Amino acid sequence: MKERIKEIMDNENLSPAKFADQLQINRAVISHILNGRNNPSLDVVTKILSEMNYINSDWLLNGTGSMYKDGFSAPTDKNERSLFDAGATNVRDNVIHSEYVKENDLRGVENTDKLTDMQHVSQVTGNNRKVKQIIIYYTDNTFETFTPH
User: What is the reported pTM?
Assistant: First the structure.
């Protein structure tokens, strides 16, 4: 199943991090699966099949049949896709419309000004506050910690 997950990522042009983010799972889970440390859990398989509902479950689980369900063709390279491509979809077609839109209730907004006039706001003095620690996070998932002397 690890090879089939790799194949999905290749066909979808997804890095392991983007794949994990799309499935809303921890990136380490995908890393462990791809490195062979862990087998995919039921949760991972169900997330793949629910987020990518065009993937053939028989293919993912057993390796039988084609990767995509009938009637779905493999996506073209996103860099080569043109505006007038036959496979291009309208974004509005993919949006799920709710039955109704709940408007924000603005009644009672006038009274909020009166409430703020009655409240006492105390000023915070900066003399008691000092920097305790500064942490800088880098894109390669490392960090440095600085503490004042």
Answer: 0.49
